[in-house]
Design a protein that fits this description.
The protein is of the alpha+beta class. 29% of the residues lie in helices and 31% in strands. The longest helix has 19 residues, at 7-25.
Length: 204
């Protein structure tokens, strides 16, 4: 009959088209291997994102035109230096005491602690209140720049030509010359510990 549909032929053609479509979307074993290799390379690159354990979180501050960093876990707060009372019979790097919300804290100038030369006039109007164990004191700063994260791999030992701070007081130096302090070593220095004991006994 003219115009009649040959359903068997139609079904055959549909089957051929379906097979070709499936072949075009199903990769060959070689293509599968290349896809898996590409995925593996992408997965291998994911660790480039720094995990928290590979970073150092520091509070960055400026003192006498030098940039310093202290691990944020040691920093209790930043406080304006409103009043500084001299304290006799203390080392030169202890400039006095300050009252912070009723707590009396020794105030330390780390430039003097490290016996570094003075570099012009500075503001010295900020206190980084740091804590290690039972010890707390204020470190003088001209300004506090804020928090930053530093990749541990970027923290390098100071070069042999570096003069000034002894190595035991430094965690390291970054490419942009941020000096990251080893606060634990500083606060455990006998000169500070003895001074703290003396103040306690005098107060009693």
């Amino acid at each position: 009959m003219a115009g009649s549909v040959n359903w068997d032929e139609t079904r055959r053609r549909l089957a051929v088209i379906q097979q070709r479509l499936e072949q075009s979307w199903t990769p060959s074993p070689d293509k599968k291997r290349k896809i898996l290799e590409a995925r593996a390379r992408l997965l291998a690159r994911e660790p480039d994102v720094l995990s928290p354990a590979s970073q150092l979180h520091v509070v960055e501050f400026v003192l006498a035109h030098e940039k310093y960093g202290v691990e944020s876990s040691y920093v209790r707060e930043v406080h304006p230096l409103i009043d500084l009372a001299p304290l006799p019979c203390t080392p030169p790097f202890i400039l006095g005491i300050a009252n912070v919300r009723g707590q009396v804290l020794s105030v330390m100038d780390i430039k003097k602690f490290f016996d570094l030369p003075e570099k012009g006039l500075t503001d010295l109007n900020k206190l980084l209140i740091v804590r290690y164990g039972d010890m707390e004191l204020g470190i003088l700063a001209d300004s506090v720049l804020g928090m930053r994260s530093v990749a541990l791999e970027e923290v390098q030992p100071p070069p042999p030509t570096f003069t000034g701070i002894r190595a035991e007081y430094l965690r390291g130096l970054t490419a942009d010359r941020l000096l990251i302090l080893n606060l634990e070593a500083i606060l455990l220095d006998p000169r500070i510990v003895v001074n703290e004991q003396a103040e306690t006994s005098n107060g009693g």
